[in-house]
Amino acid sequence: MLNRSTSRCCSILRVKEFVGLEEVTKLDFLVMLFAETLGTFLLVLIGCASCITWVAATPPTVVHIAFTFGLAVASLAQALGPISGCHVNPAVSFGLLVSGNCTFLKAVSYMVCQCCGAIAGSAVLKLIMPAAQKSYGLGATMLGPGVTIVQGIVMEAIITFLLVLVVHAVTDPKRTDTRGWAPLAIGLTISAAHMAAVPFTGSSMNPARTLGPAVIDGHFSNVWIYWVGPIAGGCTAGGVYRMGLRSNKDDDEASYDF
What we know:
Elements: H1 2-19, H2 21-24, H3 28-49, H4 62-84, H5 90-98, H6 104-128, H7 149-171, H8 182-201, H9 207-217, H10 225-245
Helix pairs in contact: 3-4, 3-6, 3-9, 4-8, 5-6, 5-7, 5-10, 6-9, 7-8, 7-10, 9-10
Membrane topology: Multi-pass membrane protein
Main location: membrane
Protein name: Aquaporin AQPAn.G-like isoform X1
């Protein structure tokens, strides 16, 4: 009888830890939500600004776009990491949820704030763009010539898998060898993924980054691809890290804490 009662209590405790109601009702959680909104706002504004064509004959290069996004995320991770973990990406939040490093309510709340921040970033970018450049769009992601829907989903899943796997590795509190390297490692991962995938899909690896320009421009064609691919890749990475790559030391919540 005692064993059955203990087992029931443990199950209830695990459910509470997964849901995370106590965490999201704290006042400090509002600051974390603001950090996620601000971080995604800046990421989309700065990153998508690098995709704008100023001279028709010389559009921005893949390397230019890749390093802009990579350096932007590295900067944001350094500034906002200790506050919210600087997910700034629904795929990262859900990947950490799968690995047990983020509660359900926190992941959902983060996702809402990330999407709002991305839309606001795209809106401000459009507002401050010269009229002549607005015809070139806001850096929306789209499939490359000849790339099928399945190919696009697979590519987005792969590059997001890599990103979320690196996020888990460099923010694992049980690994001392990666301490202090999180912003650089994650930024370089994003840059590398962009160099490989921009011709394929525009290299979103972030559903919020795709949603922002789509909402402001009103073009939603194939936007779902940039949700299915990254979320699938992020969740797979979270599961793989939890099952086979996690250190055996005591658990703790992963974040960009240095």
